[in-house]
């Protein structure tokens, strides 16, 4: 099916304005939205199935051949991320419906769908400026979602988030502009091709643009020292939105893998992989700071935000290692951390609601309804998140560590990853102990029990952790072939530019 | 696939499957979970036993499956002698513990939870000892940390239980991570994580430059788990656990996991000086320290805990000797210690259970209340003290012998036998204390309960273990010889050295040492009050827990300090970092390449107009920055910047841009004015002058960097793809305005995204506005009343007059867009401005009454139309957004073009109008409501 | 001429950065607006400067300006407008909920710190 | 001849534009300065526009009259601007030159 | 001839531009600055038409037209702001 | 029917002319399109034109426009002299003028004309719409200015809109 590549982008767009026409009928919106998500799930699955053949599926928008027109490129990586986004979004949406979050302000469903439009667009586009546009789409949607429902702290976090991202967008344009000014093109594959012929005297400027672009993606990916937007934004967002945001940092990482990995790939000569060592270095700093942040958090949601930061930092390190093994490991860890982080944000909200007045603050609270169930789920998620065995976080980390041994800085990398892991374990043990063991009737009234559907959403996302362990073999086989495809820049260039020259 | 090729994983995993069953069973009956746990343990044992013949035949059974080849991880199990011994210990003692615990737990304790945890722990331990793959071993290793956390904190309402559990988790967790690092390095060196390969590569590992790091990391794991000095302090605090847990974890299993690993990796790591010093040193220190502390503890379980430490030190020291015979002694003592210490813990549990206290200063003369228990305790304690006829004596003798042997090898090792004897003396002393202070020594002092014998079945496990102590002590080779032999061979991975364990070895140095230790032990116990006093004085200084707590709180403080210092919650701080990093990134990127900054492209000459425009631009920009505190002024000056930018676009051949910029400029001013109404008119002066200078500095730096960057590009030639657009604009896109054709056709997808952004802004603002309340300022910034003429009539009349004219212009700009500067965007903005002018001049009510469009719908339809043009193409079998155009001829009208891109542009137009008007009018309504509220209040 | 434009971009950037780093929302909005101008001009200039060369196909034209950056800037302008609008309304919301127009909502942080110590 | 006419129109237009700005710059109070731009927007821009119309008419051979529209729109909008600015200035009591005369006609 | 006239006109309009800017800088009061902005719009129209004649391109006309139609909106809004604070009520 | 289709015929003619001017053409296509728009746009915006504007004497209007244009040229020259001369010689002043005009359009036209002719700016309209406040750059003779406005501008406007 020729349009399959475009459907993951078009479906949420059409869904978005269909939802706009439903007015204020919340039930209709929910049903329509769930139907749309189901459709998207099918489309994403089919897209992944197509990608599994190992071919690149191109979609020439407007029937203009690349590099002139905008092209969507579906390969294993983009297909995987689209499906991942859909799964995460489904969990977040169900939770939002279960907790009536969608009812707390206008346009939740529209913004949600358009957020997916932006995300899937960013994952599929093969054009750097179009990537900018999709970044803006997903950002503006995320602004709306983040502020959904209102509240003082949320507003403040939103303000910071918006301003920082506006600075980021400005930097993005500077970088894209420079790259266009030097390379004369916007198509990523074409840029990569032109990098091969870049005269030596032009390398300095292109390198500057490349690192500037790294800063831009670094903001999204929450790389030190650019992550300051993250803790408050994630901690203050409505839970369902925070869960969906688990994919937001991954967009930054994806962009680095896609854009830098291609443009500054092997063919770039002296500029090949100029970004890698910075990713590695800054990833390590980020991880250390994130672990300290987990430790220093004053509330559960803040802590989860820092845990997300830590997982992103781990990914930065893995990507910075820049070997096939490390990249494959990073993809495994990416899927794991996205779904688990989503689950954890939802769970934090469940806990926070149940603790009533205490919310998610680290002070002893009342005995929660269903304390055994919630406590067990918390423990499992904490284990997965901090990278303890036997859940997926551990195996992802081990693969990354294994890959790190080939690097010159292996001692530092291993030390940072393990020590920060320890700090997080200690912190999470303290948190669990406080929330569940210290809970007592004397600490006030508990809130109402959470709806089964809400808990089900958490559990559904959480199943990723054991599944990724049990099916580690086929899944790592997939990440390996994905990485192989990813590292074959030449094939990507040839595939994207294969039609260049024929007029439509 | 036969049973014997899959049973090992089942042995380890069965308890995990059993755990939820046990928890679930408790729902039906309290005891059902105990039965489940017992049956699962027996089942596991039954699964294991058929394979026991392999080790006894000298074979190693390996069962493995691929898992994550990338990380060298296989799902692989191994059964050799060592594994068998430990698996048996875990299962057999585990079974006894299950029986014991069923009676120990009170009605208030949740049985389901306990047995579920216990089974998970058992599975983890089995996993450790049965693993063939080191990573997998580590998985189970960490699982023991987690499950023991759950077990230790079982009585979660008790603070000491929570803290003890967390400390145990922190220490053993840390060790586990070190172990992971060590294992990874081993894998790096050997090229495999499978024990078969690793154990065969001992020489390779020892010769490798990474040997020392590997050793240190592995030992960190071992020492933390086995509570060796200096990580010993967590163990006593873990005694807050229910006694069955202590009996299981801290005698036979968890603390033995470290010892197991020493035995396991013995062929790979032992034999070097580093090994001897590190392993031996830690063992010796722990041995002495533990023995001493055990004597001075008044808590029954405390005594046992430190005694355990001491015995683990003993075993460690034996491994440190690095000889085959020492290994024999070590493994033998592992068996012995497991039996007598488990029984002693159970006894302690019985006493605690029946009397309500464990304080030996209160417990006295229990003999007459529980004689049976007393006898059991005495035998087990004698074994601990190393009294002949009991198993403890035998392994202690072997240990003395090894200590003596070791002392020959180098200079200061003479100290080893001496210290070892001293430790043994303390061991005798605390063993006596355990018996004398509890069962004799006069009458008990105000016990919470009246003691009596425990239920029969609570004693049966102890009976069995005590019998084992005796049997082994009397006929060691018969009872323990075979399993010891295979275990040693499994550990050494070579043939077992010839050994013979007998009660009587003749008069030799070890026997003399035993005698001295006995005598000295009695004397020490007799003089115990002196030691207690001494200890009291030293107590404060050597508290491992205090050190740990201090360290943890320091780390916490450090974490908080760093986090709050970097994540200040300050936007300025965050922005400064980002901008600084961006500048730095550019500079570094450039500096790392040895390329010239500027190229050699011929530059355009400067003309007067441009010079003037740029001068104006700079003045206005700087003025905005300087006068920003006077907000209205800054708004005016920024308007000038926008105007000049637009002029610049015209000057440099970009009329479309100029038109867009001009329109946006005006809308922006209105927008900012609407908002400014609610903000203070003057920003307060900033008190922090250094910050101003710093920001000024970074601003100049950023500006300079951007200038240089721009110049670096502008001074070079490039080969853009734009020629394609110019060539294909008319034939392919049907329009002569290339910019517009790019927007609606070549890159229509960008434009689609862009109108979505605009729509989102509108919707987002609409959502944000709901419930937003702001007080309207009653007076203007200089304190005057506002004018009372809301809609000056002259403005009203003329603006209304202008409305159709502006719409006409909008249509004009729209229609020509495809061929000449203009298009949907600009037309949309003009139409918006026309509407906004009406709102401005006539007021919201008046205008809204006459404008009956819901802007939501306008946006929706705009998007719909834009998307539909793309979807129609899809239906015709072309990619999304493929355009089509044709020329029609109508009479009178003549030839004209019809293009699908125009439809797309209509969509753009509608979204722009809808979003812009919605945004501004929403804002306007805010003031409207605010004023309205105020008027109501005045009434 | 290129120098002149580069200078103009630099000055706008510098002023924009300075304003973005101010502590009150309105200044930040102004700063980001200036930055948007700067980057738009920058992006536009990346097609190189041309005077008197159209972007409309015309038989008499001797050459054409690079139309692509122009299209990009047009997109960027509109997006920047949407963003600015959103931000300014958010600033109002912050003013309403936090009670002041400081970017960090000063009262909140004061209260919080006070409670914590 | 045409050239001369064009040149004259251009210079006249520019001159009045300049005069407007000189007035804006030099006159002593706001209300007097307000008269400056109205000059520029009428005769200044008007003359230049006529020049443009003439120029393009003769250059392309087709009558170019759309310049009239600019003037038309300016004639509608510029006075509104001036009116509102003056009204605003009066409202916030911008200082007047002391010798400003006040005449009230028709009250009596 | 025309060329010379245009050059002279450039200088004069340029000077006008600069004088308007000077008023913008000097103020002293808000209406003065609004007036300066308004004048700059008018100057810009003149400049655009001049450019059109100079470069023989009709491309500059739309910009001038747009300023003529919409340029007053800024002035209107700013003045209304001074009068009422609330510009859309 | 006709009222609803063509609510403001004058406006429609006016818009049609503007369309042709905008496109700088008399091509048949634009003549038709312009006519369509000239009907459509007033229809679309009719709500914004609450009062019927009727021009009673079109010829007077034409003459009025010429007069205004001529006044503008003359006044421009005068004012240029004033501005370039010494500003301390200038005698500025406010004049409050009682209006005879009553229709809003008429008043607006007058105010516009006053502002367009250099040397005078209409500053304010009293709330009761009876007085127009005018600022004059230089006053030699108040009565001359007033009678000038009344005779040259207000009188024809009265004829056009209110006769
Ligand atoms: Na308003
Ligand atoms: Na006048």
UniProtKB/TrEMBL annotation, chain B:
<feature type="transmembrane region" description="Helical">
    <location>
        <begin position="114"/>
        <end position="131"/>
    </location>
</feature>
<keyword id="KW-1133">Transmembrane helix</keyword>
<feature type="domain" description="NADH-Ubiquinone oxidoreductase (complex I) chain 5 N-terminal">
    <location>
        <begin position="67"/>
        <end position="115"/>
    </location>
</feature>
<feature type="transmembrane region" description="Helical">
    <location>
        <begin position="82"/>
        <end position="102"/>
    </location>
</feature>
<keyword id="KW-0813">Transport</keyword>
<keyword id="KW-0050">Antiport</keyword>
<keyword id="KW-0812">Transmembrane</keyword>
<feature type="transmembrane region" description="Helical">
    <location>
        <begin position="6"/>
        <end position="24"/>
    </location>
</feature>
<feature type="transmembrane region" description="Helical">
    <location>
        <begin position="662"/>
        <end position="680"/>
    </location>
</feature>
<dbReference type="Pfam" id="PF13244">
    <property type="entry name" value="MbhD"/>
</dbReference>
<protein>
    <submittedName>
        <fullName>Monovalent cation/H+ antiporter subunit A</fullName>
    </submittedName>
</protein>
<feature type="transmembrane region" description="Helical">
    <location>
        <begin position="797"/>
        <end position="815"/>
    </location>
</feature>
TrEMBL record, chain D:
<keyword id="KW-1133">Transmembrane helix</keyword>
<keyword id="KW-0812">Transmembrane</keyword>
<feature type="transmembrane region" description="Helical">
    <location>
        <begin position="6"/>
        <end position="28"/>
    </location>
</feature>
<protein>
    <submittedName>
        <fullName>Monovalent cation/H+ antiporter subunit G</fullName>
    </submittedName>
</protein>
<dbReference type="GO" id="GO:0015385">
    <property type="term" value="F:sodium:proton antiporter activity"/>
</dbReference>
<feature type="transmembrane region" description="Helical">
    <location>
        <begin position="40"/>
        <end position="58"/>
    </location>
</feature>
<dbReference type="Pfam" id="PF03334">
    <property type="entry name" value="PhaG_MnhG_YufB"/>
</dbReference>
<keyword id="KW-0472">Membrane</keyword>
<feature type="transmembrane region" description="Helical">
    <location>
        <begin position="64"/>
        <end position="86"/>
    </location>
</feature>
<dbReference type="InterPro" id="IPR005133">
    <property type="entry name" value="PhaG_MnhG_YufB"/>
</dbReference>
Automatic annotation (TrEMBL), chain E:
<comment type="similarity">
    <text>Belongs to the CPA3 antiporters (TC 2.A.63) subunit F family.</text>
</comment>
<keyword id="KW-1133">Transmembrane helix</keyword>
<feature type="transmembrane region" description="Helical">
    <location>
        <begin position="63"/>
        <end position="83"/>
    </location>
</feature>
<keyword id="KW-0406">Ion transport</keyword>
<keyword id="KW-1003">Cell membrane</keyword>
<dbReference type="Pfam" id="PF04066">
    <property type="entry name" value="MrpF_PhaF"/>
</dbReference>
<keyword id="KW-0050">Antiport</keyword>
<feature type="transmembrane region" description="Helical">
    <location>
        <begin position="6"/>
        <end position="25"/>
    </location>
</feature>
<keyword id="KW-0472">Membrane</keyword>
<feature type="transmembrane region" description="Helical">
    <location>
        <begin position="37"/>
        <end position="57"/>
    </location>
</feature>
<keyword id="KW-0813">Transport</keyword>
<dbReference type="InterPro" id="IPR007208">
    <property type="entry name" value="MrpF/PhaF-like"/>
</dbReference>
TrEMBL record, chain F:
<comment type="similarity">
    <text>Belongs to the CPA3 antiporters (TC 2.A.63) subunit E family.</text>
</comment>
<keyword id="KW-0472">Membrane</keyword>
<dbReference type="Pfam" id="PF01899">
    <property type="entry name" value="MNHE"/>
</dbReference>
<dbReference type="GO" id="GO:0008324">
    <property type="term" value="F:monoatomic cation transmembrane transporter activity"/>
</dbReference>
<keyword id="KW-1133">Transmembrane helix</keyword>
<feature type="transmembrane region" description="Helical">
    <location>
        <begin position="58"/>
        <end position="79"/>
    </location>
</feature>
<dbReference type="InterPro" id="IPR002758">
    <property type="entry name" value="Cation_antiport_E"/>
</dbReference>
<keyword id="KW-1003">Cell membrane</keyword>
<protein>
    <submittedName>
        <fullName>Cation antiporter</fullName>
    </submittedName>
</protein>
<dbReference type="GO" id="GO:0005886">
    <property type="term" value="C:plasma membrane"/>
</dbReference>
<keyword id="KW-0812">Transmembrane</keyword>
């Amino acid at each position: 099916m020729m349009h399959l590549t475009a459907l993951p982008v078009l479906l949420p767009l059409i869904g978005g304005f269909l939802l706009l026409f439903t007015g204020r009928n919340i039930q209709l919106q929910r049903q329509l939205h769930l139907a749309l998500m189901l459709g998207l799930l099918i489309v994403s699955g089919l897209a992944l199935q197509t990608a599994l053949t190992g071919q690149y599926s191109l979609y020439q928008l407007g029937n203009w051949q690349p590099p002139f027109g905008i092209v969507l490129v579906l390969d294993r990586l983009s297909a995987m991320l689209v499906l991942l986004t859909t799964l995460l979004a489904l969990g977040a949406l169900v939770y939002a419906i279960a907790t009536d979050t969608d009812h707390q302000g206008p346009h939740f469903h529209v913004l949600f769908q358009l957020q997916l439009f932006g995300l899937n667009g960013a994952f599929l586009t093969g054009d750097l400026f179009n990537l900018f546009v999709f970044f803006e789409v997903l950002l503006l949607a995320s602004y709306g979602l983040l502020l959904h429902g209102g509240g003082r702290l949320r507003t403040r976090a939103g303000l910071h988030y918006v301003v920082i991202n506006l600075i980021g967008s400005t930097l993005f344009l500077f970088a894209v502009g420079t790259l266009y000014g030097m390379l004369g093109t916007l198509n990523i594959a074409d840029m990569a091709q032109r990098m091969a012929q870049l005269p030596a005297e032009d390398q300095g400027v292109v390198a500057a643009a490349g690192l500037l672009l790294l800063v831009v993606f670094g903001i999204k990916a929450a790389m030190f020292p650019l992550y300051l937007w993250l803790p408050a934004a994630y901690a203050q967002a409505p839970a369902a939105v925070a869960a969906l945001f688990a994919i937001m940092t991954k967009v930054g990482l994806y962009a680095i893998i896609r854009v830098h990995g291609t443009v500054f790939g092997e063919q770039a000569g002296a500029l090949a992989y100029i970004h890698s060592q910075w990713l590695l270095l800054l990833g390590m700093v980020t991880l250390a700071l994130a672990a300290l942040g987990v430790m220093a958090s004053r509330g559960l949601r803040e802590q989860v935000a820092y845990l997300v930061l830590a997982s992103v930092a781990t990914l930065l390190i893995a990507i910075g290692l820049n070997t096939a093994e490390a990249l494959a490991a990073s993809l495994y860890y990416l899927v794991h951390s996205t779904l688990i982080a989503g689950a954890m944000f939802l769970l934090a909200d469940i806990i926070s609601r149940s603790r009533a007045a205490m919310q998610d603050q680290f002070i002893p609270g009342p005995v929660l309804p269903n304390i055994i169930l919630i406590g067990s789920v918390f423990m499992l998620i904490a284990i997965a998140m901090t990278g303890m065995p036997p859940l997926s976080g551990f195996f992802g980390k081990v693969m990354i560590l294994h890959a790190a041994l080939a690097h010159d800085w292996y001692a530092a990398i291993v030390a940072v990853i393990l020590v920060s892991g320890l700090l997080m374990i200690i912190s999470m043990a303290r948190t669990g102990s406080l929330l569940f063991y210290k809970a007592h009737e004397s600490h006030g009234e508990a809130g109402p029990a959470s709806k089964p559907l809400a808990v089900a959403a958490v559990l559904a996302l959480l199943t990723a952790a054991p599944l990724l362990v049990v099916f580690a073999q086929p899944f790592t086989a997939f990440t390996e072939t994905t990485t192989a495809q990813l590292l074959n820049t030449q094939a990507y260039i040839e595939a994207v530019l294969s039609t260049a020259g024929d007029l439509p | 696939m036969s049973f014997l090729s899959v049973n090992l994983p089942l042995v380890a995993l069965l308890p995990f499957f059993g755990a939820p069953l046990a928890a679930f069973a408790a729902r039906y009956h309290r005891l059902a979970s105990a039965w489940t746990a017992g049956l699962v343990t027996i089942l596991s044992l039954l699964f294991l036993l058929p394979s026991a013949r392999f080790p006894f035949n000298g074979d190693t059974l390996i069962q493995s499956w691929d898992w994550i080849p990338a990380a060298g991880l296989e799902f692989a199990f191994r059964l050799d002698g060592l594994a068998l011994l430990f698996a048996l210990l875990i299962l057999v003692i585990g079974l006894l513990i299950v029986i014991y615990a069923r009676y120990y737990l009170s009605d208030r304790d949740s049985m389901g939870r306990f047995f579920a945890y216990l089974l998970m722990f058992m599975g983890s331990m089995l996993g450790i000892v049965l693993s063939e793959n080191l990573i997998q071993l580590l998985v189970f290793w960490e699982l023991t940390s987690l499950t023991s956390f759950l077990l230790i904190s079982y009585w979660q309402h008790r603070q000491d239980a929570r803290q003890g559990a967390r400390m145990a988790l922190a220490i053993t967790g840390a060790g586990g991570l070190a172990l992971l690092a060590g294992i990874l390095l081993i894998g790096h060196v050997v090229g495999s994580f499978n024990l078969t390969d690793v154990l065969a590569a001992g020489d390779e590992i020892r010769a490798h430059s990474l040997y020392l790091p590997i050793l240190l990391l592995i030992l960190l794991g071992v020492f933390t788990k086995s509570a060796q000095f200096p990580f010993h302090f967590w163990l006593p605090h873990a005694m807050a656990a229910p006694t069955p847990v202590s009996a299981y974890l801290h005698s036979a299993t968890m603390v033995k996991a470290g010892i197991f690993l020493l035995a396991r990796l013995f062929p790979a790591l032992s034999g070097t000086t580093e090994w001897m010093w590190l392993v031996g040193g830690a063992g010796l220190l722990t041995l002495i320290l533990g023995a001493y502390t055990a004597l001075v503890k008044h808590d029954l379980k405390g005594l046992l805990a430190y005694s355990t430490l001491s015995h683990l030190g003993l075993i460690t020291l034996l491994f440190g000797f690095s000889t085959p015979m020492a290994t024999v002694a070590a493994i033998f003592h592992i068996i012995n210690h497991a039996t007598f210490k488990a029984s002693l813990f159970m006894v302690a549990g019985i006493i605690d259970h029946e009397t309500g206290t464990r304080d030996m200063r209160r417990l006295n003369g229990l003999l007459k209340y529980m004689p049976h228990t007393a006898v059991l305790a005495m035998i087990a304690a004698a074994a601990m003290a190393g009294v002949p006829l009991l198993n403890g004596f035998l392994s202690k003798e072997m240990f003395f012998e090894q200590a003596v042997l070791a002392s020959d090898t180098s200079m200061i090792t003479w100290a080893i036998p001496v210290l070892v004897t001293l430790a043994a003396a303390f061991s005798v002393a605390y063993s006596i204390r355990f018996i004398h202070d509890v069962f004799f020594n006069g009458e008990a002092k105000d016990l919470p309960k009246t003691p009596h014998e425990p239920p029969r079945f609570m004693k049966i496990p102890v009976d069995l273990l005590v019998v084992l102590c005796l049997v082994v002590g009397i006929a060691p080779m018969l009872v323990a010889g075979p399993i010891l032999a295979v275990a040693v061979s499994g550990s050494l991975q070579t043939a077992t050295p010839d050994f013979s364990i007998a009660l009587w070895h003749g008069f030799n140095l070890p026997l003399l040492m035993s005698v001295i230790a006995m005598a000295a032990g009695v004397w020490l116990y007799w003089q115990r009050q002196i030691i207690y006093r001494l200890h009291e004085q030293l107590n404060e200084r050597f508290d491992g827990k205090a050190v740990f707590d201090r360290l943890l709180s320091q780390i916490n403080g450090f974490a908080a300090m760093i986090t709050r210092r970097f994540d200040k919650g300050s936007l300025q701080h965050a922005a400064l970092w980002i901008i600084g990093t961006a500048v730095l990134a550019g500079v570094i990127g450039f500096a790392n390449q040895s390329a010239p900054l500027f190229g050699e492209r011929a530059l355009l000459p400067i003309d007067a107009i441009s010079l003037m425009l740029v001068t104006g631009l700079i003045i206005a920009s700087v003025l905005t920055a300087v006068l920003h505190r006077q907000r209205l002024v800054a708004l005016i000056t920024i308007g000038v910047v926008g105007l000049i930018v637009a002029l610049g676009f015209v000057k440099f051949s970009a009329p479309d841009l100029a038109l867009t910029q001009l329109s946006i400029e005006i809308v922006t001013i209105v927008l900012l004015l609407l908002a400014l109404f609610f903000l203070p008119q003057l920003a307060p002066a900033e008190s922090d002058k250094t910050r101003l200078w710093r920001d000024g500095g970074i601003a100049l730096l950023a500006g300079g960097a951007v200038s240089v960057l721009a110049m670096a590009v502008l001074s070079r030639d490039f080969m853009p793809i734009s020629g394609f657009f110019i060539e294909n604009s008319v034939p392919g896109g049907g329009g002569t305005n290339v910019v517009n054709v790019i927007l609606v056709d070549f890159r229509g997808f960008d434009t689609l995204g862009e109108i979505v952004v605009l729509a989102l802004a509108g919707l987002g603002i609409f959502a944000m506005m709901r419930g937003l309340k702001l007080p309207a300022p009653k007076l203007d910034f200089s304190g005057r009343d506002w004018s009372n003429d809301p809609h000056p009539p002259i403005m009203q009349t003329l603006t209304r007059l202008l409305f159709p004219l502006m719409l006409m212009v909008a249509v004009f700009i729209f229609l020509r867009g495809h061929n000449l500067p203009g298009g949907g965007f600009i037309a949309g903005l003009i139409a918006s401005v026309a509407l906004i002018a009406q709102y401005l001049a006539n007021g919201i009510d008046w205008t809204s009454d006459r404008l009956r469009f819901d802007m939501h719908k306008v946006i929706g339809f705009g998007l719909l139309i834009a998307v539909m043009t793309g979807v129609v193409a899809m239906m015709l079998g072309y990619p999304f957004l493929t355009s089509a155009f044709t020329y029609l001829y109508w009479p009178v009208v003549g030839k004209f073009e019809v293009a699908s891109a125009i439809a797309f542009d209509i969509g753009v137009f509608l979204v722009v109008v809808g979003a812009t008007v919605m945004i501004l009018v929403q804002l306007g309504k805010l003031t409207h409501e605010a004023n309205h509220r105020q008027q109501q209040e005045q009434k | 001429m290129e120098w002149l434009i580069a200078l103009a971009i630099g000055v706008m950037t510098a002023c924009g950065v300075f304003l973005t780093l101010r502590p009150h929302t309105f200044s930040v909005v102004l700063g980001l607006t200036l930055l948007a101008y700067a980057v738009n001009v920058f992006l536009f200039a990346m097609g190189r400067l041309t005077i008197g060369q159209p972007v409309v196909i015309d038989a008499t034209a001797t050459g054409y300006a690079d139309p692509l950056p122009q299209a990009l800037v047009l997109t960027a302008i509109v997006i920047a407008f949407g963003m600015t609008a959103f931000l300014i309304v958010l600033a109002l919301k912050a003013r309403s909920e936090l009670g002041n127009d400081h970017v960090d909502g000063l009262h909140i942080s004061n209260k919080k710190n006070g409670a914590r110590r | 001849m045409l050239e001369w006419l064009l040149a004259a129109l251009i210079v006249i237009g520019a001159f009045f534009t300049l005069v407007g700005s000189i007035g804006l710059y030099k006159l002593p109070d706001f209300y007097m300065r307000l008269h400056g731009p109205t000059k520029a927007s009428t005769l200044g821009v008007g003359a230049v526009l006529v020049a443009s119309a003439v120029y393009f008419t003769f250059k392309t051979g087709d009558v170019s009259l759309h310049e009239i529209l600019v003037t038309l729109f300016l004639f509608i909008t510029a006075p509104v601007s001036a009116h509102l600015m003056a009204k605003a200035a009066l409202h916030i009591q911008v200082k007047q030159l002391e010798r400003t005369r006040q005449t009230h006609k028709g009250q009596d | 001839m025309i060329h010379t006239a245009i050059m002279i006109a450039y200088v004069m309009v340029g000077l006008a531009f600069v004088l308007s800017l000077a008023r913008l800088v000097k103020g002293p009061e808000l209406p003065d600055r609004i007036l300066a902005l308004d004048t700059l719009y008018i100057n810009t129209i003149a400049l655009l038409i001049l450019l059109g004649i100079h470069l023989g391109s009709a491309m500059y006309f739309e910009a001038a037209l747009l300023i003529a139609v919409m340029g007053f909106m800024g002035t209107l809004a700013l003045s209304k702001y001074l009068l009422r604070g609330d510009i859309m009520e | 029917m006709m009222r609803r289709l063509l609510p403001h015929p004058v406006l429609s003619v006016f818009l049609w002319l503007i369309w042709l001017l905008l496109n700088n053409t008399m091509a048949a296509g634009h003549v038709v399109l312009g006519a369509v728009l000239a009907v459509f746009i007033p229809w679309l915006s009719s709500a914004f034109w609450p009062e019927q504007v009727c021009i009673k004497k079109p010829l007077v209007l034409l003459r009025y426009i010429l007069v205004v244009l001529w006044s503008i040229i003359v006044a421009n020259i005068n004012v240029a002299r004033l501005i370039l001369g010494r500003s301390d010689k200038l005698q500025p002043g406010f004049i409050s003028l009682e209006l005879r005009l009553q229709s809003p359009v008429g008043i607006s036209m007058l105010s516009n004309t006053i502002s367009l002719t250099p040397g005078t700016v209409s500053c304010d309209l009293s709330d009761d719409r009876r007085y127009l406040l005018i600022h004059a750059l230089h006053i030699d003779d108040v009565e001359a200015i007033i009678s000038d406005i009344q005779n040259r501008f207000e009188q024809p406007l009265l004829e056009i809109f209110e006769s």
